[in-house]
Amino acid sequence: MEHIIETEYLTKKYAELTAVNSVTLNVRKGSLFGLLGPNGSGKTTMIKMLTGQIKPTSGNARVLGLDIESDPVGVRKLVGIIPEQESPPSFLTAMEYLEFIADIRKIPDLENKADWWFDFLEYGDKKNVLCKDLSRGTRQKLMLTQAFIHEPELALIDEPLINFDPIMQDKVKSFFVSYTKKEKTLFISTHLLDTAEEICTEVAILHLGDLLYTGTIDSVRQEGRHLSDLFLSLVRK
Asked: What fold characterizes domain 25-79+152-237?
């Protein structure tokens, strides 16, 4: 069984605060893996470590076979990333930002690929609008585009649906599911339990930095439980 992400006792401390506490987990190729937890549980810190944006205090992790500490740039070259609350540069238009991304990632045939995304996410009329003038939802569409336009083997997304209306949420969820059917892997962090139960194949529950649970959605259902019941029973302890 091929693991796309492997962590062993991964830990991040800020002075006296332990944001992530000795987390060991594996993410299988082709899975839609949901990292769940309340606000402040350590989800964003996990994604930042896995994408080489911050160094762990201790422990280790490999992403697509690369060590996150010794080759963080290599990790970021391969994966798609949507960080929490990050916006595209205000001084570029939507298309100029994608051209910038294409230049960094050496993406061929950008115009056709970009047009597909503009059409799919229904924001082609914003193609030449400065990013500073885009709505929050449209900026999220652009961030989604830049994360997937090079068709990465793995994408890590922090709260992927937070700025979308219900219609766009449904479209993006369907895209996520279809993407993993191509043997691609998605790692999403969210506190939207209904969404996780609907689309994820595997989940992990993180609370106050501690990993409380890992397992498949099927195993939760076989126990006759909803994900929300399991989640609340664990975090309320």
From this structure: Rossmann fold (3.40.50)
